[in-house]
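We modelled the chain as a single entity of 267 amino acids. Its sequence is:
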Amino acid sequence: MGTTTRVMTSCHTSLKRVWSVLRRRTIEASNDNNSTFAETAGDGFIVEKNTKFLSADHSLVVSHIRHQRWEPFILALNGTNFQELNECFCATTEYDDHSILSFALRHNPPFSVIRKIIQARPQCIHEKGSCGQTPLHVAVSSRASKYIVGFLASTYPKACEERDHDGKTPLHLIFAHKLDSVSTELAEILVQTSPSSLDVEDNDEMCVLELAILREAPLKIVLLMQRVKRRHLSKTKQRAPNSTNGIMNGTSTENGTRIHSLSSVAA
């Protein structure tokens, strides 16, 4: 009987050691992959340690966006707690986007989808990703339709002046890509929506008009920006106190000199 007890005790101890080793290796593997994702059923993914899992319903909604299945997405969205979905999505680190809205904008959505998302969660239009970009930045970078860009800009005009981590506004980003008729349309929308965005400089101290001249943008858009800038400056001077006018005149003169210099080089 004593021998049997010793054998059972020994087996029990060995099992505990094996379990301890397996548990330690599992934890180590989890730590090593802390910032990665593993695919799960339903085309979902596991979120970072100590965060929530996307539920099956949430994973399905994300899957619809990734595969541009917009009709099923709208139907699934109607039966989903959108705030909870957005919070779970924000907890992931697979993408730079911190909202479903920005994520959807990268997948060429129709206007109806963007409008539906904003109706479900109006505040998501203000949310920035890890690069400091608003949904309007993402829409411009992804070359969304003029209807989507116009809707985002008119719904949240301040986004036209928001700078990302490189100091670039959505208008700056237009001239960071190949210029064509789409670029001209988007630039017209942003300039008309927020004339003051023309005064914003990026981290390289470049305003949009300077960037447009350097990129040899179409004359139509350069002239539009110059016209809007002059009109905006005139209105600003009329509203501002005399002391402020002096400062603004100085800034305007400096920018004007730089732009004139760039125009000469471009010519």
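As a brief sanity check on the tokenised model: Residues 39-121 form one domain. DSSP finds 13 helices and two strands in the chain.
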